[in-house]
Amino acid sequence: MPYCAKWPIGSRPESLFDGGVKLRTLSARDRLQLLKFVCSFVWADLDVGPSEKTFVLSLTQRLGLSEAEIQQVQAWLETPPPVEEIDPSLVPPQHRRLFLEAIEQALTADGAVTPPESESLALFRQLLTPP
Fold it and tell me: Is the pTM value of this prediction over 0.85?
C-alpha cells in the first residue's frame, strides 16, 4: 500500500477539507500562499503528473480563486514557484495543519509518494513543529 509520511493512503483521519469549511476561513492571501506551497511540493520529484495537476486545479475551485489567481497556479504547475518564496515561517500558525493536509493530499493524488516528496514533506513537517 502506498504510504504518505503520516497515514497509509485511504486511512487518513477525518479531513480538514470536509465540507470546505476550513478552506473558507483562509484569507485571499493565505489561499494563494497555500497553493504556492502545494505546487512547490508536487515539484519535489521534478515531475508534476496529471493526477497532481487535477488535484491542484480542483483545489483552486474549492478555494474560490479568481481567474488571475488560477492562471498563477497554472504557471506554478508548469514552472515551480521560486524556492525563496517557500518559507515555512510564512505559514500562519493557525493554518499549519491545513497546509500539511493539502500538501499530503496533493502528493498522494497519483497514488504514490516518491522518496523526494516524502523527504520534503518530512522536513516541512519538522520545520512547522515547534520545539
Answer: no
